[in-house]
Amino acid sequence: MSCGEPHETDCSEILDHLYEFLDHEMPDNDCTKFEVHFEECSPCLEKYGLEQAVKKLVKRCCGSDDVPVDLRAKVMGRIELIRSGHQVPEADVATAAAEPTPQEH
What we know:
Pfam families: zf-HC2. The chain has six helices and no strands. It is mostly helical.
């Protein structure tokens, strides 16, 4: 996604690291780049607002649920694979989706 306008920080870079910004997992100088970009780029600002709203909704609806340790480890492992540029095999994703949660046993 790009608004078609030139920016100091490209829209693709902003969107690739949007969750790091939302989760406050980046250095302050990078956060400043994002804030400047959002002031200039309404499509990216809109995407940021949408993702921020979804994050708040998930926290409100699921924030008090304990996440099973093995599920957290699997999710974090997949995130690391994706961040390192690897693809998660479709069969792996389908298997994880079909696994029963502890409440379903």
